Amino acid sequence: MISISDDKTVYKWDLTCPTPHKLLELDLYPTDIDFPISKAINDCFAIGFGDGSFRLITKMGKTEKNVSEAHKGAVISIKWSGDGYSLVTAGEDG
Length: 94
Prior knowledge:
By secondary structure, the chain is mainly β. It is built from no helices and nine strands.
């Protein structure tokens, strides 16, 4: 499991260990996170940010894609499609 927090940290949790592993430190405040449910695309996840941007990040912590101007205002929701090939974002800009 992977989680984000207001301290700009992404943690990777192993169900066999009670303490998380710090996967990476972010330079922006995260607002939402989502994972594709498709087995075809399962090596990365998406994080939305308070500045209106979002990123695709691998499970190893490497940024694969950075979209800096997705919204004017925060990304309030980010979701993968059922097949894992499309991503939708919603922002404060409506």
